[in-house]
Amino acid sequence: MRVRKAIIPVAGLGTRFLPATKAVPKELLPIVDKPTLQYIVEEAAASGIEHIVLVNGRNKSAIEDHFDIAYELEDTLRKRDKVALADEMRDISALCQITSVRQMQPLGLGHAVLAGRAVVGDEPFAVLLGDDLVRTDDGQRPGIGQLIDAFEQTGKGQVALMQVPKSEIEKYGAAVGTPDANNPRQFLIDKLVEKPPAGTVDTDQAVIGRYVLPASIWPLLESTTPGRGGEIQLTDALAALLQKEGLGGYTIDGERLDAGDKVGFLQANLIEAMSRDDLRARVVEMMRGVLERFDG
Ligand code: UTP
Fold this sequence. Notes:
CATH class of the largest domain: Alpha Beta
Shape: globular
Order of helices and strands: EEEHEHHHEHHEEHEEEEHHEEHH
Bound molecules: uridine 5'-triphosphate
Structural class: alpha/beta
CATH topology of the largest domain: Spore Coat Polysaccharide Biosynthesis Protein SpsA, Chain A
């Protein structure tokens, strides 16, 4: 069955970005001039996703507004002859069909994904975390598209993996297993653990915020009880799926940037700015000045 729908959870509290996230959801913080979440919705739409389920929490009406038509703004821009900008605003609302559901309390990522069940129903679906960016080159298949292809080829749920220093694996969902001899991007997972205490697992394969899952995950999510940090963990439901019918790991060809982390967010801004022809030279000059001032 084709993967047509995607869940994007955006109901977290974003405590690492307080006070910025007191009234503004972290998924709307901009990377240069575009909200993090818009990059992610564009990635999903360019991968063939037709319907996105946004799992919203408190203070998230701004997210819905961002993907809606803004008549007054467009009208004003057109009257001021800013036609290209008005068209760009209109294009945002045409990216994809978007349905919002509410996660009443931020009880964890597994709980947030489960909130999308009624809209997704009995078909495979993608999950993209609202603060994780995956950059690919122009013309290249986007990150979640690569994972959808791996799902369709293997018939198994897929989690995106990236290599990290073993000493840092305790900050991530950890995948233990072996690389597939026939496909170096594919990883045969034996065990999945959410943020394992230091020294308890021997792996450098960390789960990042892209997944493609079969509908058989639903009952497993329903029966997942609070795990690490008292939260209902997606990783625990994935570990149950692994036991039941197997689960693949896949290394996306692209660059993952963690916009939910302060330094990751700054890095994403700099990389995005440097990739824009109209900004690169000025940004290089600015960074040289900053480095001279603080690093010299
Ligand atoms: P994070 O753990 O990075 O988000 O979850 P957070 O809890 O908002 O961030 P901090 O750690 O307090 O700064 C990854 C994604 O899952 C969503 C978040 O919005 C984020 O996009 N999420 C997390 C939910 O939708 N619901 C939850 O209960 C937890």
